[in-house]
Amino acid sequence: RKRSSLPLPPGPPGLPVVGNVADIPTTQPYKTYIEWGQKYGPLMHISALGQPLIIVNDVKIAIDLLDKKSALYSDRPTLRMAGELTGWDNTLVLQHYDERLKEYRRYIHRFLGTRSNLERFHPLFEHESRLMLKRIVESPEDFAGLIRHAAGAIIMKMTYGYSIRDDKDPFVSLVDQATTEFGDVTDARKVWFVDLIPALKYVPEWVPGATFQKVAKAYGQTLKDMADVPMNWVKQRMAAGEAESCFVTDLLEESGRTAQEERNIKWAAASLYSGGADTTVATLHTFFLCMTLFPDAQRKAQEEIDSVIGPDRLPTFADRHRLPYVEAVLSEVLRWGPVGPIDIPHLLMEDDVYNGYFIPKGSIVFANIWAMLHDANTYADPMEFKPERFIARPGKPAEQDPRACSFGFGRRACPGMTLAETTVWLWIATALATLNVSKARDADGVEITPSGRYLDGTIAHPEPFKCSIKPRSPATEALINYD
Ligand code: HEM
Predict the structure, then answer these.
(1) In this structure, is residue 26 part of a structural domain?
(2) Residue to mutate (ligand 1; options 91, 279, 348; most atoms within 8 A of CB)
(3) CA 212 – CA 201 distance, rounded (Å)
(4) Cα-flanking dihedrals φ and ψ of residue 195, to 5°?
(5) What is the atom index within ligand 1 of the atom nearest the CA of 343?
(6) What is the mean pLDDT of the segment spanning 95-120?
(7) Are 44 and 54 in contact (CB under 8 A)?
(8) What is the rounded distance in angstroms from the CA atom of residue 184 to the CA atom of residue 347?
(9) How remote is the CA of residue 114 from the centroid of ligand 1, in Å?
(10) Atom of ligand 1 nearest to the CA of 283
């Protein structure tokens, strides 16, 4: 505070030394931050053991800070346990704002930054999407697992040219294990003392009580394998002249193959699966949830597909511009159930001043994306699922595109946005064309209404729910049911 005479942004008062540690919610923090915002305004400050935390509930402020001043706001906090000790700071998402980060992001942008970059993968997306629908029709109760399989198949093929096995794929098991372990070391309900007292990282593993070192070592090995095993597989295939063109081969072929470049390519590749699989899966879970809860939207989208495309074929990317309601369903899914409800925290690299408030260097900034996408001043009836809000009508402009915040901000904004948008659009369009999603019934024939609640975690999935998924007709079943 000595650094400025200006006040910090307002926020709930904390206790001496520990600050607001006891106030920080461990479940659905975005809702508590909205309650605080009603009292203190859209830009708030709290602290945890002297660490300043800034919470932003308003999209304009988030853009002013994280986007327009992204040269200041693009670092990530250091996570001792998950980042430094376990090694996740090698992946893009926890990488500090440095040359390596820029290199990773350049690689990814070149490979999948634009819709035209992705055209060569359209046949892959169409194949995997149809296969997923066919399998969902065969085992509707397992739809969540089948979505995950499809997302994994696409990312592994694009990144490594690798076709995953239907059952217990070794690469996918490795990534799933690493991701679960990442969830464990970043679980907001757990405290790793090394995160509070950084000097503990020097305590050796054999010291009684230093079990965190053993955990970090074991988890670090899984993570290392997750990056090394598929990378080595591609290199062997390249050496044998059998590799398929993919993210890794493209980059290895054009790089000078220095050890440093290979390392960066390896971790950028590992970042694609860890950043891309669960997020697209969560988005599709939300889609199925919304189709169960809001049948009108499903019916309108199906009417549009029937009139524009008819019953004889599946929608393809060439149809996208002719299906505005389906496009609006995608936007509404992104708005209604945001995958990253409080974004991934950014770290401020220099002192800053905003609207007369002092924001100290080292502040960790949380953009409350959930609040921004459920703000009644921006979205009419924000808790309702209404795709038509995104279709302009005479006298009523479309409401704000959720992409203003749903993929994050500035120099840390999601580098997989175009891929996510493309694959999720196709899944949604083909699912709407071929399936009817509705409420499941219990043993007495009574409809089961999903709670609509979300699980906690950096990536928000709906609570597991039951729904009924059936082909719309024998004709639509035939469209997906061929080998
Ligand atoms: C609908 C799906 C997705 C959503 C809603 C989403 C959203 C986000 C958000 C909110 C962030 C944080 C941005 C920030 O810090 O401000 C992020 C980061 C990231 N996303 Fe996505 N994402 C999705 C899909 C994907 C896909 C398909 C990939 C890759 C293939 C991907 C890779 C990443 C990576 C690597 C980061 C870290 C970027 C960095 O730290 O610089 N995401 N995403």
Answers:
(1) yes
(2) 279
(3) 9
(4) -75, -30
(5) 10
(6) 92
(7) yes
(8) 22
(9) 15
(10) 1
- Indicate whether 377 belongs to any domain: yes
Least confident stretch, 180-189, 388-397, 428-437: 180-189
pTM for this predicted structure: 0.94
Domain membership flag for residue 2: no
Range of the domain at 251: 21-480
**Within-domain flag for 295:** yes
Does the ipTM exceed 0.90? yes
Domain count for the chain: 1
Which H or E element spans position 46? strand 43-48
Provide the β-strand partners of residue 366: 55
**What is the CATH classification number for the domain harbouring 48?**
1.10.630.10
Residues framing ligand 1 (Cβ under 6 A): 92-93, 271-272, 275-276, 279-280, 283, 339-340, 343-344, 346, 406-409, 412-416, 419-420, 424
Q: What angle is formed at CA 478 by the lines to CA 323 and CA 317, rounded to 5 degrees?
A: 25
368 CA distance to ligand 1 middle (Å): 15
DSSP 445-467: SPBPPP---B--SSS--BPP--E
pLDDT digits (tens, 9 = 90+) for 212-246: 899 999 999 999 999 999 999 999 999 999 999 99
SS3 content of the chain, % helix, strand, coil (to 5): 55, 10, 35
Alpha carbon of 199 to ligand 1 centroid (Å): 31
Q: Is the dihedral of CA 459, 462, 463, 466 positive or negative?
A: negative
